[in-house]
Design brief:
2 copies of one chain form a homodimer. Chain A is an alpha+beta fold. Chain A folds into 2 domains: 104 residues, 2-Layer Sandwich (Alpha-Beta Plaits); 132 residues, Pseudouridine synthase I, catalytic domain, C-terminal subdomain (Alpha-Beta Plaits), CATH 3.30.70. The first copy, chain A, has 5 helices and 10 strands. In chain A, helix 1 packs across helix 2. The longest helix of chain A has 13 residues. The two termini of chain A are 31 Å apart. At the A-B interface, strand 4 of A face strand 4 of B.
Chain lengths: 255, 255
Amino acid sequence: MKIALLVAYDGTGFRGFARQRNTKVRTVQGVLEERLSHLLRRDVVTTGAGRTDAGVHAWGQVVSFEAPVAAEPEWVKTRLNRWLAPDVVVRAAVFAGESFDARFSARRRMYEYAVYEADVVNPFLERFAVHVSEKLDVRAMRWAARALIGEHDFASFCRSGEGSTTRRLRSVSFVRRDERLVIRVVADSFCQQMVRSIVGTLLEVGRGMRAATDIGRVLEARERAEAAPVAPAKGLRLVGVEYGTNPFRIASPTP
Amino acid sequence: MKIALLVAYDGTGFRGFARQRNTKVRTVQGVLEERLSHLLRRDVVTTGAGRTDAGVHAWGQVVSFEAPVAAEPEWVKTRLNRWLAPDVVVRAAVFAGESFDARFSARRRMYEYAVYEADVVNPFLERFAVHVSEKLDVRAMRWAARALIGEHDFASFCRSGEGSTTRRLRSVSFVRRDERLVIRVVADSFCQQMVRSIVGTLLEVGRGMRAATDIGRVLEARERAEAAPVAPAKGLRLVGVEYGTNPFRIASPTP
Protein backbone atom coordinates (compact mmCIF):
# COMPACT_ATOMS: atom_id res chain seq x y z
CA MET A 1 0.00 0.00 0.00
CA LYS A 2 1.17 3.51 -0.79
CA ILE A 3 1.25 5.88 2.15
CA ALA A 4 1.54 9.67 1.81
CA LEU A 5 2.79 11.88 4.64
CA LEU A 6 2.26 15.62 5.00
CA VAL A 7 5.41 16.80 6.74
CA ALA A 8 6.52 20.03 8.42
CA TYR A 9 10.07 20.66 9.54
CA ASP A 10 12.41 23.23 10.99
CA GLY A 11 15.30 22.90 8.56
CA THR A 12 17.84 24.65 10.81
CA GLY A 13 19.45 21.45 12.00
CA PHE A 14 19.35 19.57 8.70
CA ARG A 15 21.58 19.44 5.65
CA GLY A 16 18.53 19.64 3.44
CA PHE A 17 15.75 17.20 2.63
CA ALA A 18 17.46 14.67 0.36
CA ARG A 19 19.16 11.66 1.92
CA GLN A 20 22.91 11.48 1.45
CA ARG A 21 23.94 7.84 1.34
CA ASN A 22 27.03 6.59 3.13
CA THR A 23 27.49 9.73 5.17
CA LYS A 24 26.63 10.76 8.70
CA VAL A 25 25.01 13.93 7.40
CA ARG A 26 21.60 14.57 8.99
CA THR A 27 18.86 15.10 6.40
CA VAL A 28 15.07 15.09 6.71
CA GLN A 29 14.62 12.20 4.31
CA GLY A 30 17.44 10.35 6.05
CA VAL A 31 15.83 10.52 9.51
CA LEU A 32 12.39 9.70 8.09
CA GLU A 33 13.67 6.62 6.24
CA GLU A 34 15.69 5.47 9.22
CA ARG A 35 12.67 5.71 11.53
CA LEU A 36 10.27 4.22 8.97
CA SER A 37 12.59 1.29 8.33
CA HIS A 38 12.87 0.68 12.06
CA LEU A 39 9.11 0.93 12.47
CA LEU A 40 8.11 -1.28 9.52
CA ARG A 41 11.03 -3.72 9.91
CA ARG A 42 12.16 -3.44 6.31
CA ASP A 43 14.12 -0.96 4.22
CA VAL A 44 11.82 1.90 3.33
CA VAL A 45 12.63 4.18 0.42
CA THR A 46 10.71 7.45 0.26
CA THR A 47 10.05 10.06 -2.39
CA GLY A 48 9.68 13.74 -1.52
CA ALA A 49 7.83 16.41 -3.48
CA GLY A 50 10.55 19.04 -3.07
CA ARG A 51 14.28 18.62 -2.46
CA THR A 52 14.72 21.55 -0.10
CA ASP A 53 18.30 22.76 0.45
CA ALA A 54 20.22 22.81 3.71
CA GLY A 55 18.54 25.15 6.21
CA VAL A 56 15.29 25.47 4.24
CA HIS A 57 12.07 24.69 6.13
CA ALA A 58 8.79 23.06 5.18
CA TRP A 59 5.21 23.31 6.30
CA GLY A 60 3.66 21.14 3.61
CA GLN A 61 6.32 18.79 2.25
CA VAL A 62 4.80 15.58 0.90
CA VAL A 63 6.57 12.22 1.23
CA SER A 64 5.33 8.91 -0.17
CA PHE A 65 6.48 5.31 0.24
CA GLU A 66 5.38 1.73 -0.31
CA ALA A 67 4.36 0.14 2.98
CA PRO A 68 3.38 -3.35 4.07
CA VAL A 69 -0.42 -3.70 4.10
CA ALA A 70 -0.37 -3.99 7.87
CA ALA A 71 0.84 -0.43 8.43
CA GLU A 72 -1.95 1.93 9.48
CA PRO A 73 -1.18 5.54 8.46
CA GLU A 74 -2.37 6.97 11.80
CA TRP A 75 -0.11 4.61 13.69
CA VAL A 76 2.85 5.55 11.48
CA LYS A 77 2.11 9.23 12.10
CA THR A 78 1.90 8.85 15.87
CA ARG A 79 5.07 6.80 16.11
CA LEU A 80 7.09 9.06 13.84
CA ASN A 81 5.99 12.14 15.78
CA ARG A 82 6.98 10.54 19.05
CA TRP A 83 10.51 10.21 17.70
CA LEU A 84 10.98 13.19 15.47
CA ALA A 85 8.89 16.11 16.80
CA PRO A 86 9.32 19.01 17.10
CA ASP A 87 12.07 19.18 14.43
CA VAL A 88 10.10 17.05 11.97
CA VAL A 89 6.36 16.65 12.37
CA VAL A 90 4.00 14.45 10.39
CA ARG A 91 0.84 16.55 10.12
CA ALA A 92 -1.17 13.88 8.34
CA ALA A 93 -0.71 10.35 7.01
CA VAL A 94 -3.08 8.63 4.57
CA PHE A 95 -3.32 5.73 2.13
CA ALA A 96 -2.78 7.04 -1.39
CA GLY A 97 -3.50 5.32 -4.69
CA GLU A 98 -0.85 2.89 -5.97
CA SER A 99 0.07 5.29 -8.76
CA PHE A 100 0.65 8.17 -6.33
CA ASP A 101 4.20 9.47 -6.15
CA ALA A 102 4.92 12.53 -4.00
CA ARG A 103 7.30 13.87 -6.60
CA PHE A 104 6.00 12.82 -9.99
CA SER A 105 2.31 13.27 -9.22
CA ALA A 106 2.88 16.84 -7.98
CA ARG A 107 1.47 19.55 -10.23
CA ARG A 108 2.62 22.66 -8.40
CA ARG A 109 4.81 23.66 -5.51
CA MET A 110 4.32 26.75 -3.38
CA TYR A 111 7.20 28.32 -1.51
CA GLU A 112 7.19 31.31 0.80
CA TYR A 113 10.13 33.52 1.61
CA ALA A 114 9.89 35.71 4.72
CA VAL A 115 11.77 38.93 5.41
CA TYR A 116 11.19 41.57 8.06
CA GLU A 117 12.10 45.23 7.90
CA ALA A 118 13.31 46.56 11.24
CA ASP A 119 15.91 48.83 12.78
CA VAL A 120 17.45 45.95 14.71
CA VAL A 121 17.31 42.17 14.60
CA ASN A 122 14.25 40.56 16.23
CA PRO A 123 15.13 37.41 18.21
CA PHE A 124 11.60 36.05 17.76
CA LEU A 125 11.61 36.28 13.97
CA GLU A 126 15.26 35.47 13.24
CA ARG A 127 14.92 31.72 12.96
CA PHE A 128 12.47 31.68 10.05
CA ALA A 129 12.87 35.08 8.40
CA VAL A 130 15.62 37.37 7.18
CA HIS A 131 16.27 40.79 8.65
CA VAL A 132 16.38 43.77 6.28
CA SER A 133 17.42 47.05 7.87
CA GLU A 134 15.85 49.33 5.27
CA LYS A 135 12.27 49.74 4.05
CA LEU A 136 11.77 47.75 0.87
CA ASP A 137 10.09 49.19 -2.20
CA VAL A 138 7.49 46.45 -2.55
CA ARG A 139 5.84 48.14 -5.52
CA ALA A 140 9.07 47.93 -7.48
CA MET A 141 9.55 44.31 -6.41
CA ARG A 142 6.04 43.40 -7.50
CA TRP A 143 6.58 45.12 -10.83
CA ALA A 144 9.92 43.36 -11.35
CA ALA A 145 8.48 39.94 -10.51
CA ARG A 146 5.98 40.18 -13.37
CA ALA A 147 8.72 39.63 -15.93
CA LEU A 148 9.29 36.16 -14.50
CA ILE A 149 5.74 34.81 -14.79
CA GLY A 150 5.18 32.15 -17.44
CA GLU A 151 7.37 29.52 -19.07
CA HIS A 152 10.99 30.61 -19.42
CA ASP A 153 14.51 29.30 -19.38
CA PHE A 154 15.48 30.20 -15.81
CA ALA A 155 19.20 29.43 -16.28
CA SER A 156 20.06 32.79 -14.67
CA PHE A 157 18.26 31.69 -11.51
CA CYS A 158 19.37 28.03 -11.43
CA ARG A 159 22.42 26.47 -9.93
CA SER A 160 24.64 25.65 -12.90
CA GLY A 161 25.35 22.08 -13.94
CA GLU A 162 21.72 21.03 -14.11
CA GLY A 163 19.85 19.70 -17.12
CA SER A 164 16.96 21.68 -18.55
CA THR A 165 16.35 24.93 -16.74
CA THR A 166 13.03 25.69 -18.39
CA ARG A 167 10.27 26.06 -15.81
CA ARG A 168 6.74 27.43 -15.65
CA LEU A 169 6.36 30.07 -12.96
CA ARG A 170 2.70 30.60 -12.03
CA SER A 171 2.79 33.52 -9.65
CA VAL A 172 4.85 35.71 -7.35
CA SER A 173 2.82 37.51 -4.70
CA PHE A 174 3.63 39.71 -1.74
CA VAL A 175 1.71 39.48 1.52
CA ARG A 176 2.23 41.34 4.80
CA ARG A 177 1.72 38.88 7.63
CA ASP A 178 2.35 39.92 11.24
CA GLU A 179 5.56 41.90 10.98
CA ARG A 180 6.87 40.01 8.01
CA LEU A 181 6.77 40.55 4.30
CA VAL A 182 6.10 37.16 2.74
CA ILE A 183 7.02 36.54 -0.91
CA ARG A 184 4.99 33.62 -2.20
CA VAL A 185 6.19 31.85 -5.34
CA VAL A 186 4.24 29.14 -7.18
CA ALA A 187 5.56 27.03 -10.06
CA ASP A 188 4.96 23.62 -11.57
CA SER A 189 8.46 22.77 -10.44
CA PHE A 190 11.65 24.61 -9.53
CA CYS A 191 15.30 24.17 -10.39
CA GLN A 192 17.78 24.16 -7.52
CA GLN A 193 18.09 27.44 -5.61
CA MET A 194 15.53 29.04 -7.94
CA VAL A 195 13.36 30.69 -5.27
CA ARG A 196 16.37 31.98 -3.36
CA SER A 197 17.94 33.38 -6.55
CA ILE A 198 14.71 35.11 -7.51
CA VAL A 199 14.22 36.49 -4.00
CA GLY A 200 17.85 37.63 -3.79
CA THR A 201 17.38 39.55 -7.02
CA LEU A 202 14.01 40.97 -5.99
CA LEU A 203 15.52 42.15 -2.71
CA GLU A 204 18.13 44.11 -4.66
CA VAL A 205 15.26 45.75 -6.50
CA GLY A 206 13.47 46.46 -3.23
CA ARG A 207 16.59 48.08 -1.81
CA GLY A 208 17.04 50.27 -4.87
CA MET A 209 20.29 48.56 -5.89
CA ARG A 210 18.82 47.33 -9.16
CA ALA A 211 16.10 48.70 -11.44
CA ALA A 212 12.81 46.81 -11.61
CA THR A 213 13.20 46.68 -15.39
CA ASP A 214 16.52 44.87 -15.01
CA ILE A 215 14.88 41.52 -14.23
CA GLY A 216 13.79 40.86 -17.82
CA ARG A 217 17.37 41.37 -18.98
CA VAL A 218 18.68 39.00 -16.28
CA LEU A 219 16.20 36.32 -17.35
CA GLU A 220 17.13 36.65 -21.01
CA ALA A 221 20.87 36.52 -20.31
CA ARG A 222 20.59 32.89 -19.14
CA GLU A 223 23.72 33.49 -17.07
CA ARG A 224 23.79 32.68 -13.36
CA ALA A 225 26.20 35.59 -12.77
CA GLU A 226 23.59 38.11 -13.92
CA ALA A 227 21.23 37.42 -11.01
CA ALA A 228 21.95 38.39 -7.42
CA PRO A 229 23.46 35.97 -4.89
CA VAL A 230 20.92 33.58 -3.36
CA ALA A 231 18.98 34.87 -0.36
CA PRO A 232 19.71 33.00 2.93
CA ALA A 233 18.15 29.55 3.32
CA LYS A 234 16.46 30.24 6.65
CA GLY A 235 13.86 32.63 5.13
CA LEU A 236 12.53 29.93 2.79
CA ARG A 237 9.75 27.43 3.42
CA LEU A 238 8.01 24.88 1.20
CA VAL A 239 4.42 25.59 2.19
CA GLY A 240 2.42 23.28 -0.01
CA VAL A 241 2.26 20.92 -2.95
CA GLU A 242 -0.70 20.57 -5.28
CA TYR A 243 -1.87 17.27 -6.78
CA GLY A 244 -4.64 16.40 -9.21
CA THR A 245 -6.43 14.90 -6.21
CA ASN A 246 -5.34 16.07 -2.78
CA PRO A 247 -4.50 12.88 -0.86
CA PHE A 248 -4.94 14.65 2.49
CA ARG A 249 -8.27 15.62 3.93
CA ILE A 250 -6.87 18.68 5.68
CA ALA A 251 -6.33 22.13 4.30
CA SER A 252 -2.88 23.67 4.51
CA PRO A 253 -3.10 27.04 6.25
CA THR A 254 0.34 28.55 6.45
CA PRO A 255 1.65 29.44 9.89
CA MET B 1 25.47 59.19 33.36
CA LYS B 2 22.69 56.65 33.65
CA ILE B 3 21.97 54.67 30.51
CA ALA B 4 18.80 52.62 29.99
CA LEU B 5 18.61 49.78 27.48
CA LEU B 6 15.48 48.24 26.02
CA VAL B 7 16.42 44.60 25.51
CA ALA B 8 14.86 41.64 23.69
CA TYR B 9 16.15 38.11 24.03
CA ASP B 10 15.52 34.52 23.09
CA GLY B 11 15.88 32.90 26.51
CA THR B 12 16.31 29.36 25.16
CA GLY B 13 20.08 29.34 25.57
CA PHE B 14 20.22 31.19 28.90
CA ARG B 15 19.91 30.16 32.52
CA GLY B 16 17.68 33.15 33.13
CA PHE B 17 18.29 36.87 33.29
CA ALA B 18 20.08 37.30 36.61
CA ARG B 19 23.87 37.02 36.70
CA GLN B 20 25.24 34.12 38.73
CA ARG B 21 28.59 35.12 40.17
CA ASN B 22 31.53 32.75 40.19
CA THR B 23 29.96 30.30 37.81
CA LYS B 24 30.25 29.61 34.10
CA VAL B 25 26.48 29.68 33.78
CA ARG B 26 25.30 31.76 30.81
CA THR B 27 22.77 34.41 31.81
CA VAL B 28 21.48 37.47 29.96
CA GLN B 29 22.70 39.91 32.60
CA GLY B 30 26.01 38.06 32.70
CA VAL B 31 26.70 38.44 28.97
CA LEU B 32 25.48 42.06 28.99
CA GLU B 33 27.74 43.01 31.90
CA GLU B 34 30.69 41.17 30.42
CA ARG B 35 30.33 42.96 27.09
CA LEU B 36 29.59 46.35 28.70
CA SER B 37 32.62 46.06 30.97
CA HIS B 38 34.78 45.22 27.97
CA LEU B 39 33.31 48.11 25.98
CA LEU B 40 33.54 50.76 28.70
CA ARG B 41 36.81 49.48 30.17
CA ARG B 42 35.52 49.29 33.71
CA ASP B 43 33.36 46.95 35.75
CA VAL B 44 29.76 47.65 34.86
CA VAL B 45 26.96 46.56 37.17
CA THR B 46 23.46 46.55 35.71
CA THR B 47 19.95 46.43 37.11
CA GLY B 48 17.13 44.69 35.26
CA ALA B 49 13.41 45.35 35.55
CA GLY B 50 12.45 41.66 35.65
CA ARG B 51 14.44 38.65 36.78
CA THR B 52 13.17 36.21 34.17
CA ASP B 53 13.75 32.51 34.88
CA ALA B 54 15.79 30.07 32.80
CA GLY B 55 14.28 29.67 29.35
CA VAL B 56 11.96 32.69 29.64
CA HIS B 57 12.16 35.26 26.84
CA ALA B 58 11.87 39.04 26.72
CA TRP B 59 10.77 41.60 24.19
CA GLY B 60 10.86 44.66 26.44
CA GLN B 61 13.25 43.96 29.33
CA VAL B 62 14.76 47.18 30.67
CA VAL B 63 18.35 47.32 31.94
CA SER B 64 20.05 50.36 33.49
CA PHE B 65 23.63 51.10 34.49
CA GLU B 66 25.94 53.96 35.41
CA ALA B 67 28.23 54.77 32.49
CA PRO B 68 31.23 57.05 32.03
CA VAL B 69 30.08 60.38 30.53
CA ALA B 70 31.89 59.55 27.30
CA ALA B 71 29.64 56.61 26.41
CA GLU B 72 27.06 57.47 23.76
CA PRO B 73 23.95 55.27 24.07
CA GLU B 74 23.70 54.72 20.30
CA TRP B 75 27.30 53.57 20.18
CA VAL B 76 26.73 51.20 23.10
CA LYS B 77 23.65 49.81 21.34
CA THR B 78 25.45 49.24 18.05
CA ARG B 79 28.43 47.57 19.66
CA LEU B 80 26.39 45.32 21.93
CA ASN B 81 24.23 44.21 19.00
CA ARG B 82 27.30 43.39 16.95
CA TRP B 83 28.34 40.95 19.68
CA LEU B 84 25.12 39.63 21.08
CA ALA B 85 22.48 39.58 18.31
CA PRO B 86 20.37 37.66 17.53
CA ASP B 87 20.17 35.97 20.96
CA VAL B 88 20.17 39.28 22.81
CA VAL B 89 19.23 42.49 21.00
CA VAL B 90 19.35 46.05 22.30
CA ARG B 91 16.28 47.66 20.70
CA ALA B 92 17.00 51.13 22.10
CA ALA B 93 19.55 52.84 24.34
CA VAL B 94 19.05 56.27 25.92
CA PHE B 95 20.36 58.54 28.67
CA ALA B 96 18.03 58.30 31.65
CA GLY B 97 17.81 60.58 34.67
CA GLU B 98 20.28 59.95 37.52
CA SER B 99 17.48 58.67 39.74
CA PHE B 100 16.32 56.13 37.13
CA ASP B 101 16.66 52.50 38.11
CA ALA B 102 15.31 49.84 35.76
CA ARG B 103 14.00 47.82 38.68
CA PHE B 104 12.97 50.27 41.37
CA SER B 105 11.53 52.91 39.05
CA ALA B 106 9.30 50.33 37.33
CA ARG B 107 5.59 50.69 38.04
CA ARG B 108 4.23 47.74 36.14
CA ARG B 109 5.41 44.71 34.27
CA MET B 110 3.56 43.01 31.42
CA TYR B 111 4.14 39.37 30.59
CA GLU B 112 2.63 37.28 27.82
CA TYR B 113 2.26 33.55 27.79
CA ALA B 114 1.64 31.85 24.44
CA VAL B 115 -0.01 28.51 23.81
CA TYR B 116 -1.33 27.00 20.59
CA GLU B 117 -4.06 24.44 20.19
CA ALA B 118 -3.33 21.92 17.46
CA ASP B 119 -3.57 18.25 16.64
CA VAL B 120 0.20 17.96 16.28
CA VAL B 121 3.23 20.01 17.26
CA ASN B 122 4.08 22.94 14.97
CA PRO B 123 7.84 23.30 14.39
CA PHE B 124 7.43 27.01 13.66
CA LEU B 125 5.67 27.83 16.91
CA GLU B 126 7.41 25.40 19.27
CA ARG B 127 10.26 27.66 20.30
CA PHE B 128 8.16 30.43 21.84
CA ALA B 129 4.83 28.80 22.60
CA VAL B 130 3.47 25.68 24.25
CA HIS B 131 1.50 23.04 22.37
CA VAL B 132 -1.91 22.04 23.76
CA SER B 133 -3.55 19.12 21.99
CA GLU B 134 -7.11 19.93 23.05
CA LYS B 135 -9.32 22.99 22.51
CA LEU B 136 -9.19 25.20 25.59
CA ASP B 137 -12.30 26.61 27.21
CA VAL B 138 -11.18 30.23 27.13
CA ARG B 139 -14.43 31.50 28.63
CA ALA B 140 -13.84 29.42 31.74
CA MET B 141 -10.21 30.58 31.90
CA ARG B 142 -11.26 34.22 31.62
CA TRP B 143 -13.84 33.73 34.33
CA ALA B 144 -11.35 31.98 36.61
CA ALA B 145 -8.73 34.70 36.13
CA ARG B 146 -11.05 37.36 37.51
CA ALA B 147 -10.62 36.00 41.04
CA LEU B 148 -6.94 36.92 40.88
CA ILE B 149 -7.29 40.60 40.00
CA GLY B 150 -6.41 43.07 42.75
CA GLU B 151 -4.07 43.01 45.74
CA HIS B 152 -3.75 39.55 47.27
CA ASP B 153 -1.33 37.29 49.03
CA PHE B 154 -0.21 35.15 46.08
CA ALA B 155 1.63 32.57 48.23
CA SER B 156 -0.15 29.76 46.35
CA PHE B 157 1.39 31.04 43.11
CA CYS B 158 4.89 31.94 44.39
CA ARG B 159 7.95 29.81 44.74
CA SER B 160 8.24 29.13 48.45
CA GLY B 161 11.02 30.61 50.57
CA GLU B 162 10.46 34.18 49.46
CA GLY B 163 9.58 37.16 51.66
CA SER B 164 6.25 38.90 51.20
CA THR B 165 4.10 37.31 48.56
CA THR B 166 1.52 40.08 48.44
CA ARG B 167 1.24 41.55 44.95
CA ARG B 168 -1.16 43.73 43.01
CA LEU B 169 -2.37 42.03 39.83
CA ARG B 170 -3.82 44.56 37.38
CA SER B 171 -5.21 42.42 34.59
CA VAL B 172 -5.28 39.04 32.89
CA SER B 173 -6.44 39.14 29.29
CA PHE B 174 -6.72 36.63 26.48
CA VAL B 175 -5.90 37.51 22.90
CA ARG B 176 -5.89 35.33 19.79
CA ARG B 177 -2.86 36.27 17.70
CA ASP B 178 -1.99 34.34 14.54
CA GLU B 179 -2.50 30.76 15.61
CA ARG B 180 -1.68 31.36 19.23
CA LEU B 181 -3.72 32.10 22.30
CA VAL B 182 -1.81 34.75 24.23
CA ILE B 183 -2.47 35.23 27.95
CA ARG B 184 -1.36 38.70 28.96
CA VAL B 185 -0.75 39.38 32.65
CA VAL B 186 -0.02 42.82 34.12
CA ALA B 187 1.02 43.51 37.71
CA ASP B 188 2.98 46.11 39.64
CA SER B 189 5.49 43.36 40.31
CA PHE B 190 5.57 39.57 40.38
CA CYS B 191 6.95 36.99 42.76
CA GLN B 192 9.08 34.21 41.29
CA GLN B 193 7.29 31.82 38.92
CA MET B 194 4.03 33.71 39.50
CA VAL B 195 2.96 34.02 35.86
CA ARG B 196 3.83 30.41 35.10
CA SER B 197 1.93 29.19 38.21
CA ILE B 198 -1.12 31.24 37.28
CA VAL B 199 -0.98 30.06 33.66
CA GLY B 200 -0.44 26.44 34.71
CA THR B 201 -3.56 26.67 36.87
CA LEU B 202 -5.60 28.47 34.20
CA LEU B 203 -4.62 25.81 31.65
CA GLU B 204 -6.06 23.15 33.97
CA VAL B 205 -9.29 25.16 33.99
CA GLY B 206 -9.19 25.48 30.19
CA ARG B 207 -8.74 21.71 29.86
CA GLY B 208 -11.67 21.02 32.18
CA MET B 209 -9.43 19.44 34.85
CA ARG B 210 -10.32 22.09 37.40
CA ALA B 211 -13.44 24.20 37.92
CA ALA B 212 -13.21 27.92 37.16
CA THR B 213 -14.53 28.61 40.67
CA ASP B 214 -11.63 26.69 42.17
CA ILE B 215 -9.15 29.55 41.64
CA GLY B 216 -10.51 31.67 44.49
CA ARG B 217 -10.04 28.76 46.86
CA VAL B 218 -6.47 28.18 45.63
CA LEU B 219 -5.65 31.84 46.20
CA GLU B 220 -7.07 31.83 49.72
CA ALA B 221 -5.26 28.64 50.69
CA ARG B 222 -1.87 30.40 50.47
CA GLU B 223 -0.33 26.99 49.79
CA ARG B 224 1.91 26.41 46.77
CA ALA B 225 0.68 22.82 46.52
CA GLU B 226 -2.89 23.99 45.83
CA ALA B 227 -2.01 25.57 42.49
CA ALA B 228 -1.04 23.59 39.40
CA PRO B 229 2.58 22.93 38.41
CA VAL B 230 4.23 25.85 36.62
CA ALA B 231 3.67 26.06 32.85
CA PRO B 232 6.85 25.55 30.77
CA ALA B 233 9.28 28.49 30.62
CA LYS B 234 9.46 28.71 26.83
CA GLY B 235 5.87 30.03 26.49
CA LEU B 236 6.63 33.07 28.64
CA ARG B 237 7.90 36.47 27.55
CA LEU B 238 8.42 39.75 29.42
CA VAL B 239 6.88 42.13 26.89
CA GLY B 240 7.11 45.49 28.55
CA VAL B 241 7.79 47.55 31.65
CA GLU B 242 5.99 50.74 32.55
CA TYR B 243 7.65 53.75 34.19
CA GLY B 244 6.31 57.09 35.40
CA THR B 245 8.12 58.57 32.41
CA ASN B 246 8.99 56.22 29.56
CA PRO B 247 12.74 56.65 29.02
CA PHE B 248 12.49 55.31 25.46
CA ARG B 249 11.04 57.21 22.57
CA ILE B 250 9.76 54.11 20.88
CA ALA B 251 6.55 52.24 21.46
CA SER B 252 6.67 48.54 22.29
CA PRO B 253 4.53 46.62 19.85
CA THR B 254 4.67 42.96 20.75
CA PRO B 255 5.85 40.57 18.09
